[in-house]
Write a structure and sequence with these properties.
3-stranded antiparallel beta sheet; 4-stranded mixed beta sheet; 581 residues; binds protoporphyrin IX containing FE; alpha+beta
Amino acid sequence: MIQQNIRKASRGIQITLVFGLVVLLDGILHVVASQLSSWIFWRETWVIGKRWTFLANWNVTHHLLGVGLALLIASLFHNYTYRRRAYRFFRRLGIPGPKPHLIKGNGDKMRNHSLVAIDVMDQWKAEFGDVYGYFVGMKPYVVVGDLDMVQQVLIRDFHKFVNRPAMGIEIRPVINTLVGLRSHRWKEVRRVISPTFSTRKMRKINSIINRCADILVEVVGKHAETRNEIDFYGVFQGLTCQVIGECALDTKVDCQRQPQDEFLNSLRQFLKQANNPIIDLAIYFPLVREILAVVCRVASPCGQFTQSIIDKVQGVINQRREDRLSGTSTPNHGDILQLLMEASENRQEDTDDTDGRVRPTHQLLTDDEIIANAWVFLLGGFETTANALTYCAYLLATHADVQQKLYEELRDYLGESSGDLETDYNTISQLTYLDKVFCEALRLFPPVVLFVTREAAEDAQLGDFHIPAGTNVQIPIWQIHHDPKLWPDPYRFDPERFEPELKKNRHPMAWIPFGSGPRSCLGIRFAMLEAKIALAKLLMNYRLVPCERTEEKLTLSVPTVTLNPKSGVWLKAEKREQTSA
Ligand code: HEM
């Protein structure tokens, strides 16, 4: 409702503004043209004595200019009062919060390159408590840190909070993906795609992950031989890029052995540009949103990279269909793209509710949706898992006792020689200390900090607070994961916090690195499997140790919605046989 009103009002403002500008420009053009022609005419008429013609023309243009200016000033004034009124939204609801800037709201703090969003939210929490409101442009966000309310939004009242807030710019193909789809269509697509990430299906992609993890060990080994310092952030980005590229796009890239690989660099560039000034403009000035969406799609390197992936995946789909028809298909592609294609072809018969007749069967996912989702798995599976692995490596290198205990568990389960070991889902699931270490790393450094947001589809009541339809609700993962009431001594790395007994007694919303409820992360099993296999293989072969470039306290940044190590994470790796195991 609020969003609709905002949209309606801003459209009204836009029309007035555009009209005002057109008239103004028209007026200016008239002045210039009439000045010019009059000047020419005047030079001639001066000789013949008809100077009054120029004055008559000037009056007309002067009039138009006046009307244009008046309209412009009126629409600016309207915009100003409208924004002032909109910014009183939280005050009217009795929700505290920081004072918004007239144009940017509080977006200048949350989207500022020199401030870190999690620090800003720490300050706001200290000042306003567990529930407060802020604005990005004119979009209202209410931050809800109370765990019962979190559970209400993500699970109990999910039917009221199905969608994420609409994006600043509606970029294709994002709006066709699980991340961007809304309401009924999201539900349908999620139902079709979910089995792709089931435990049984994960076994299929095991061998791709194992092969890529072996390359990781080889790459780290090369650095270890020369005793080089290693930026593990870059190394793990290579791993996750290769895994997800092969699994989701059938794209073979050698980005682990070739850190300057073009595909990997394009992906990095894409994510860097996801927070560019064009997006800021679209958020703060809805008037130019549609134009900017076109500019982004056609002219920006991001758009071109996306298009190249769309073309590539469409090519693979066509090829696989042709192969199947001609009977030459390789039966075991074993990747996510194949699973998506199979899921989409599980045709279903729908009954028309109105007359009870059975409608013709249809393909459950269109090709556009298969491609869009394969593309979003690339984005979802690249940076997040690389970040998780990087923080884990950092914490293990700086906590030798934990690393040793983990190594002992790995050695007991996986045996002494791990070089060519194919670690499967079942084995990995039995490694309980590995699970504790990974969960604690995800608590201390949740890779995704600003993405668990929902838009209220109807009015809701959260505790004492009335939340009108259209309000965006944000769950502050970082603050929850570092709340001393939930996690004593919250900045200490202690995997024992994930002892089953302690876990049982904790609020289910106290640990939510993957979100929670029906719209939580779809790739959780994939991410866990990939990260655990990579860590297991790496630690069986190498001991991670800090080096001169290792930061005592990591410098973090939040360029979009993820939590990144700003300057990478530099460590050394020592071959296990060379050290006392
Ligand atoms: C450690 C790694 C990862 C973390 C920490 C992570 C975190 C998250 C979070 C916080 C959300 C939002 C959940 C919510 O709104 O409640 C999300 C959504 C999502 N993630 Fe992940 N993710 C990870 C890996 C992956 C991988 C590997 C994939 C795919 C291969 C993936 C695919 C998705 C998708 C498709 C969604 C949107 C789900 C929907 O709206 O239905 N993620 N993820």
